Amino acid sequence: MLRILSALIISIFMALPAAAQQSVWVQIEAQRTLTGAQDAARGYAAAGVPDVTGFALPGGWYGIALGPYAAVDADNQLNQLRRAGVIPADSYIVDGGRFRTQFWPVGVTAPTEPVELETPQATEAPTDEETPVAAVEPEPVPEPDPIQTPDETLREAQASEQALDRDQKRLLQTALQWAGFYDSAIDGAYGRGTRRSMVAWQEANNHEPTGVLTTGQRAELLGAYNSILDGMGLQLVRDDASGIEMQIPTGVVKFAEYEPPFARFDASGDVAAQVLLISQPGDQTRMFGLYEILQTLAIIPPTGERSRRDRGFEIEGFDENVHSYTSVVLENNQIKGFTLVWPAGDDERRRRVLAEMQASFATIDGVLDPAIARPDEDQAIDLVAGLAVRKPVRDRSGFYINGAGEVLTTIEAIGECTSITLGMEHEATVVHQDENLGLAILRPTTRLAPPAVAEFQTGVPRLQAEVAVAGFPYGGVLTTPALTFGTLADIRGLNGEDDVKRLSIYAQPGDAGGPVYDNGGAVLGMLLPKVQTNGQALPPEVSFSVDADQIIASVTGAGLNVVTTESVAYMTPEALTLMAADMAVLVSCWND
Fold this sequence. Notes:
The structure is a single chain. By secondary structure, the chain is α+β, with helices and mostly antiparallel strands. The protein has four domains: 23-104, Alpha-Beta Plaits (2-Layer Sandwich); 154-228, Muramoyl-pentapeptide Carboxypeptidase, domain 1 (Orthogonal Bundle), CATH 1.10.101; 236-374, Mog1/PsbP, alpha/beta/alpha sandwich (Protein Transport Mog1p, Chain A, 3-Layer(aba) Sandwich), CATH 3.40.1000; 394-590, Thrombin, subunit H (Beta Barrel). 23% of the residues lie in helices and 30% in strands. The chain has eleven helices and 31 strands. It has a seven-stranded antiparallel β-sheet, with helices on both faces. It has a six-stranded antiparallel beta barrel with strand order 18-19-22-21-20-31. Helix 1 (2-14) packs antiparallel against helix 3 and helix 5 packs across helix 7 (215-227). The longest helix is centred in the N-terminal third of the chain and has 14 residues, at 71-84. The chain is elongated, with a radius of gyration of 37 Å. This is Putative peptidoglycan binding domain protein. InterPro entries: Peptidase_S1_PA, Peptidoglycan-bd-like, PGBD-like_sf, PGBDSf. It comes from Octadecabacter temperatus. Pfam families: PG_binding_1, Trypsin_2.
């Protein structure tokens, strides 16, 4: 086949008459990168296309051309090669005025005369008398780039433009907008705004400013617009397991595995990109649950727009590392969508890739089978379908102090936080701090109705009485607080301080900020974090709590309400555990 094609091309060229006129070239394509242009030139040459040349162009582009040829032959040559199907249909004739350094063939200087297509006749060598003396040529004076010869007349350009459909016209407006020449509606209607943008683009690219783009100019504009997708390998992928079909940048991601509800495509090269196809059966309630779960993933930062509707949702998240976008729809009890994760700072390529994915997304029969992936040793509590969950800087404990849902916690819990959550769900803000006592009051941004609130004990407790601390010693691993039991070692600190009590209890760092209960469930104080003073480490069972009277004075002084009691009662450990589950809450510090 290749021999037949080569013979056809050669016969076309042999049939053309020779002429020594102004040099012209047939430009067949332009590439954004030198490597891409060299590969293209090599491909044409390997296919038997003769006289393949390559030149650098203004604006960082690289052109592939054939020639040079005599101008009188160029039209006929262009038409024959187009009909033969060996060059692109949008190839056009140029005068070479914009050609710069020649990169193909390597080491060849750009010719200044047309290639003669006939076999040259032998000539006699000049005699000594006829040998010319080399003359010193003056340095050429740089001249401005000449206006390129249009590939179509204005009337022809108008006719070819009229043949475009509305989508093709919108695409040209989009490309003009991307190039910085158009700022109006993408509607496919060519009014004065579109014509002005075309004139501006033509002037900037050294074309005659007619306000109507020729076929070649449209190809040049769209080539520049699409060059940013070089190497992305956008390909229509049909995944029958998940029931999704869409364009995926296979040049930078490759299929990794099924981890329901995801079909995961991980980065395959230097671009730290990731694509998730989302597919699972379910109703609106399950879709809303997925909406919440996705926002806990590390690949979806908390900063960005969120939009949840009855039949779908969108989540955008970005930070200094990644920029992700998720879109999900609910149809016929099937939840389907996708997530694109892209490295931060590469917004232009991200937007183009995302636009192609959004436009091509389609659902087909089938939904991802939850049993498609078997459990293995890589399972972890901080992974959701193989994806890392976003983690807080620190977790501490707190407890509700009034019916408004305000929470008392240690001041250590809120240091250097960009956001604070209660129970990993509810955003909260700091409304009061007491540096001396080491406590803080948090207020949820949306009003909560806690099932139980603290009753602060104002009576004097008995030494060596049994006490308990409710807290989250393992952070968010456990969904309910754990109770740790101990004794009241002293109603004062080691140096006789009246504002703290000393406990004998084996508490963990995550318990700090939790309530300290007496036998009847009244709150004696708040557990303080363990600190070393003057390099001294106390025994592990020694802990301290802020005295209830000090807490009451600080909180009420800030204009906040608390509940107090003087009664001494008894509560079983089981009942105390249930009450603590309603009163204690996980306080998480985030630094996004």
